[in-house]
Design brief:
Strands 1-6-7-8-9 form a 5-stranded antiparallel β-sheet, with no helix packed on it. A 5-stranded antiparallel β-sheet has the order 2-3-4-5-10, with no helix packed on it. By secondary structure, it is mainly β. The chain starts with a helix and ends in a 23-residue tail after the last strand. The protein is built from 1 helix and 10 strands. 12% of the residues lie in helices and 39% in strands.
Length: 166
């Protein structure tokens, strides 16, 4: 009876160790996102990104630690939208977006080429490296979502550190 309990305990410890040391499954998208809720995280140092492709355009939100608004809520600094001419994505044909945490970047591959997004851990610099099989023109747009004052609605006070409506 004691031997059975010891064997069960050792088997449980062994399976737990395999689980903790196991390789994580890769995070891969094989189609474009519907919106930002299907974005991938990426970051370095105190800069963070949410990266996604929607409607044949590349998007990413930017955030930085320590950037709070007057209500003590940490907000995104804005969104960057990149449109390519000629079309780089062409729908979902050959589309693959992969988070590579060991290498510290998001890689987007299409029939037209590859895009790598990564953040420098020593400087506040976001890198977007485009390798295309043909020349492309990239139009980059910064979109600030805070363009006017807005009152905080009921329940939004829970997202700041004060935990009550200002």
């Amino acid at each position: 009876m004691v031997a059975k309990k010891i064997f069960s305990l050792l088997a449980l410890v062994w399976m737990s160790m395999l689980f903790l040391w196991g390789q994580h499954a890769p995070l891969i998208w094989e189609s474009q996102s519907r919106n930002s809720s299907e974005s991938m995280p990426c970051g370095g140092g105190d800069i963070g990104l949410n990266v996604w492709v929607e409607g044949d355009e590349l998007f990413f939100y930017m955030s930085c630690s320590g950037t709070f608004d007057r209500y003590n809520t940490q907000l995104k600094q804005g969104r960057v939208r990149v449109a390519f001419t000629p079309g780089f994505f062409n729908g979902d044909t050959g589309f693959r977006q992969e988070l590579k945490p060991e290498e510290g970047h998001v890689e987007i591959t299409t029939a037209a080429g590859t895009i790598e997004l990564w953040v420098d851990v020593f400087k506040p610099v976001i890198h977007v490296e485009v390798k295309s099989r043909q020349p492309v023109k990239a139009e980059v747009f910064y979109e600030n979502w805070r363009y006017q004052d807005r009152l905080i609605r009921k329940g939004e006070g829970q997202q700041n550190s004060w935990k009550w409506a200002p």
